[in-house]
């Protein structure tokens, strides 16, 4: 009969992600349980699937990774924590895509949304979309490309071999604990969960702790079309300060000093009106409290607007996002580190996979700072800068790539490249590099750049 597994072994397994074999015998042992800890029983974990590319997170970067990998000929699986694809676009109800004037999927998505009568362009780089239409479109595109998806599934550990190569992940869901293996694993969780579980070095905020950028919970409100159009961000006739002043006149002072409304047509608008300060996205208790506070604030603002009567007499908060919007998460150490100097100088790289043209967008770290400026660039004037493929390849382990806001960079660079138009472009590159690595039976960093560039060019070729 096997001896009990020690707490030290269990902790090491959870950090390294090594699968615990059935007959593991403890080298040392500690008392089973105590008032402040529980020893988990050993278990055999079923391997559900082995695929070329395993995408952990089905948000903007994850969708782009999966579709590009599939279109490059790889078998692909997406594991998503929520009940739909799109991440911050859908379960986060962002409703607005920025810095998306880029070829490939960035051009395909708004075109297909427009065909569904679910998109409004806001200049060449940004657009508003209907959240439910986006959900349907992304699921349709996965079906078209034979991408397998599992919802309501969270990554809880990473499997690595003796050579420090990531071989797969372990998840928890209603199906229990399951294992998934792949040639390349791509961390598109936003918060860098997979990289952290794999033991990679990472940064967060301005240092390893807050001050960090605040979170915001998106909502949908209804009111008369005339009321909503009055403060529509896309219309250009009103400023965000006027919307804040109107909310203040109704008796509420929003925690975000630049509350924003995007008119969606009919009697519907998406709103971003709150900030939750100093919350670490990997602290579940703190995120829970932030979500509750934010939802209450949106509800109270909507009630205050309704109390104004007139065009606002029927104003209601219809729904809030399933997940609070996170601006600042872990940034996993990669084989290149994008810095503030890249931003200031407009860096160019031979292995450039996209160019960030967004400003350095730093939202106030405290409510007091928010009263002076809701957001700022801290004196960093951005020039369009390249993001190299190397920033998407993990440094501390093999077989792991990142895409989206968890790539390798500093606080200031992240404040520019974190918007979702860039996340899509990063995902395309991660998908191509991962698929080519599978075809060539090598690691992503060993794929020749010319091969990645050639395939990216093919995939991003304009349609029609």
From TrEMBL:
Pfam families: FAD_oxidored (PF12831)
Organism annotation: Blastopirellula marina
Molecular function in Gene Ontology: 4 iron, 4 sulfur cluster binding; metal ion binding; oxidoreductase activity
The keyword 4Fe-4S appears for this protein: yes
InterPro entries given in the database record: FAD/NAD-bd_sf (IPR036188), HdrA-like (IPR039650)
Signal sequence segment: 1-26
Protein origin, superkingdom: Bacteria
Keywords: 4Fe-4S, Iron, Iron-sulfur, Metal-binding, Oxidoreductase, Signal
Coiled-coil ranges from the UniProt annotation: none
Name of this chain's protein: FAD-dependent oxidoreductase
Repeat listed as a keyword: no
């Amino acid at each position: 009969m096997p001896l009990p597994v020690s707490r030290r072994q269990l902790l090491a397994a959870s950090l390294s992600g090594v699968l615990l074999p059935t007959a593991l015998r403890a080298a040392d042992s500690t008392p089973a349980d105590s008032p402040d800890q529980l020893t988990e029983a050993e278990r055999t974990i079923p391997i559900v699937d082995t695929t070329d590319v395993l995408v952990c997170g089905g948000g903007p970067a994850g969708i782009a990774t999966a579709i590009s990998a599939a279109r490059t000929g790889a078998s692909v699986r997406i594991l998503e924590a929520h009940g739909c694809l799109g991440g911050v676009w859908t379960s986060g109800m962002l409703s607005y895509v920025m810095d998306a004037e880029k070829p490939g999927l960035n051009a395909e998505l708004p075109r297909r949304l427009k065909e569904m009568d679910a998109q409004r362009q806001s200049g060449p780089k940004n657009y508003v979309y209907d959240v439910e239409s986006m959900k349907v479109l992304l699921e349709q595109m996965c079906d078209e490309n034979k991408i397998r998806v599992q919802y309501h599934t969270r990554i809880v550990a990473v499997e690595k071999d003796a050579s420090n190569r990531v071989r797969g992940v372990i998840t928890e869901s209603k199906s229990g604990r399951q294992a998934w293996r792949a040639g390349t694993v791509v961390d598109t969780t936003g918060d860098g969960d997979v990289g952290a579980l794999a033991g990679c070095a990472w940064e967060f905020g301005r240092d390893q702790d807050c001050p960090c950028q605040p979170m915001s919970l998106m909502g949908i409100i209804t009111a008369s079309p005339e009321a909503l159009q009055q403060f529509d961000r896309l219309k250009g006739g009103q400023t965000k300060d006027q919307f804040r002043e109107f909310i203040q006149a109704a008796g509420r002072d929003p925690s975000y000093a630049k509350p924003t409304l995007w008119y969606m047509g009919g009697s519907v608008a998406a709103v971003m009106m709150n900030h939750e300060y100093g919350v670490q996205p990997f602290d579940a208790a703190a995120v829970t409290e932030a979500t509750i506070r934010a939802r209450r604030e949106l509800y109270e603002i909507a009630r205050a607007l309704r109390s104004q009567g007139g065009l606002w007499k029927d104003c209601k908060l219809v729904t809030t996002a399933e997940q609070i919007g996170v601006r600042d998460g872990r940034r996993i150490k990669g084989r290149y580190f994008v810095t503030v100097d890249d931003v200031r100088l407009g860096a160019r790289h031979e292995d450039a996979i996209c160019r960030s043209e967004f400003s350095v967008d730093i939202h106030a770290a405290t409510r007091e700072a928010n009263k002076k400026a809701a957001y700022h660039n801290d004196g960093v004037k951005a020039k369009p800068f390249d993001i190299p493929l190397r920033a998407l390849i993990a440094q501390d382990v093999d077989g792991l790539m990142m895409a989206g806001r968890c790539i390798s960079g500093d606080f200031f660079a992240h404040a520019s490249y974190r918007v979702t138009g860039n996340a899509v472009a990063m995902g395309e590159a991660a998908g191509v590099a991962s698929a080519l690595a599978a075809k060539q039976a090598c690691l992503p960093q060993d794929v020749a750049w010319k091969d990645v560039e050639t395939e990216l060019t093919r995939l991003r070729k304009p349609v029609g």
